[in-house]
């Protein structure tokens, strides 16, 4: 695994790079409060056939903490990161917060995404949720990122549902079932709004890739490009 610090449009993002240098590119995007290391098991498995890129999103891990947070900023960070790494048409895999970043990017840049995987991703519909409480001590990420993204998820911008309809990449929704706090019927509604989509439920809660990594990676391997060598770098 090669940890790189990338200048992504004025912000420095840490990005782990591993796997087959000639394999189809896959980008793994972590959830709120996590960092790229959360994908370690999945990245190792996918790296057998793919080139894997795992960034720390702004405010998380070893990436910069600029104090400004919004999903649109993270979406644009992702675009700048891919440009800097010269990754032209990856598959995006996003968990929770990372899933929102992934689908907003796929909607804005449909020609830049090969496939899209959204793991238990919060739906772009208003909902009442408890305001997160700051933990005792200092967390390993910028707490301002929590308050900003939580506000957007509770009252999403009006154009987010339409963004789903703009996605052209084949899309896999992986839902966590009844043990997840994310409304499962709303994930199904998201899937219905994407023209080329399928929905798979792995009933273990919100963190599917962590609690059922073998099932998760097997599902991904059945969906991702088959490993034909790509001259993407």
From TrEMBL:
* Pfam name, any one: Abhydrolase_1
Q: Name it.
A: Alpha/beta hydrolase
Q: List the InterPro entries.
A: AB_hydrolase_1, AB_hydrolase_fold, AB_hydrolase_sf
The UniProt keyword set, sorted, is: Hydrolase
Q: Is Oxidoreductase found in the keyword set? A: no
Source organism:
Streptantibioticus parmotrematis
User: GO molecular function, one example?
Assistant: hydrolase activity
All copies of the AB hydrolase-1 domain together span 24-130
């Amino acid at each position: 695994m090669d940890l790189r610090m990338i200048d992504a449009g004025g912000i420095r993002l840490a990005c782990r790079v591993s796997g087959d240098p000639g394999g189809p590119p896959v980008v793994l995007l972590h959830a709120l409060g996590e960092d790229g290391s959360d994908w370690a098991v999945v990245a190792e498995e996918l790296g057998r056939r793919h080139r894997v890129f795992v960034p720390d999103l702004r405010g998380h891990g070893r990436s910069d903490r600029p104090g400004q947070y919004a999903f649109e900023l993270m979406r644009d960070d992702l675009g700048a990161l891919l440009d800097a790494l010269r990754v032209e048409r990856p598959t995006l895999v996003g968990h929770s917060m990372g899933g929102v970043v992934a689908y907003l990017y796929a909607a804005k840049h449909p020609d830049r995404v090969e496939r899209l995987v959204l793991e238990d991703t919060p739906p772009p519909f208003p909902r009442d949720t408890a305001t997160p409480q700051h933990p005792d001590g200092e967390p390993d990420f910028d707490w301002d990122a929590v308050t900003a993204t939580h506000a957007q998820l509770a009252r999403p911008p009006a154009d987010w549902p339409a963004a789903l309809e703009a996605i052209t990449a084949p899309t896999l929704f992986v839902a966590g079932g009844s043990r997840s706090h994310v409304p499962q019927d709303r994930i199904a509604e998201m899937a219905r709004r994407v023209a080329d989509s399928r929905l798979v439920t792995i009933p273990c809660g919100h963190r599917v890739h962590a609690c059922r990594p073998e099932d998760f990676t097997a599902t991904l391997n059945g969906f991702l490009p088959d490993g034909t060598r790509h001259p993407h770098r």
